[in-house]
Design brief:
- The protein contains no helices and eight strands.
- Helices cover 0% and strands 66% of the residues.
- β6 and β7 (99-102) form a beta hairpin.
């Protein structure tokens, strides 16, 4: 029987990631992202329901660092660390002149499998050509 609150966000970001080809089977990469995030902060009190629920769009940004391993030329596996944050949000409490500010940031580890669309990689020039049957 306590007060419940939870900060929720939905994000729409554009990321730029740069792969460092260092000749290893594992490729490190770094990146940044910018965009917008909808931050919602509801507060409910037992037996009275929702006390307030305010939201607003904020500037969002993230930093990315990770490693990529190519399983084959079209499929890779990534392990990333991502720091995602917004600028400070101001919320109001209804029926009062009270406002408060809060920020939002998260630190995440993300594992992903990526399929690379596009043309097939060029053929190996040292491969033995297959001659047609007569």
């Amino acid at each position: 029987m306590g007060v419940n609150g939870a900060l929720h966000t939905q994000s729409l970001l554009t990321n730029v990631v740069y792969d460092f080809d260092v000749g290893w089977p594992i490729t490190p990469h770094f990146g940044v992202g910018i965009g917008t995030m909808n931050v919602s902060d509801p507060l409910s009190i037992p037996s009275t329901g929702i006390f307030f629920n305010d939201s607003g769009w904020q500037f969002g940004y993230q930093a990315i660092a990770g490693l990529r391993y190519d399983l084959d030329p079209l499929v890779s596996v990534d392990l990333d660390y991502r720091y995602l944050a917004t600028t400070e949000s101001m919320f109001r409490i209804p029926n009062t002149n009270l406002h408060y500010r809060t920020g939002d940031n998260t630190k995440n580890f993300v594992a992903s499998v990526t399929y690379h669309f596009g043309p097939s990689p060029p053929a190996d020039p040292l491969a033995t050509p297959v001659s047609p049957s007569p």
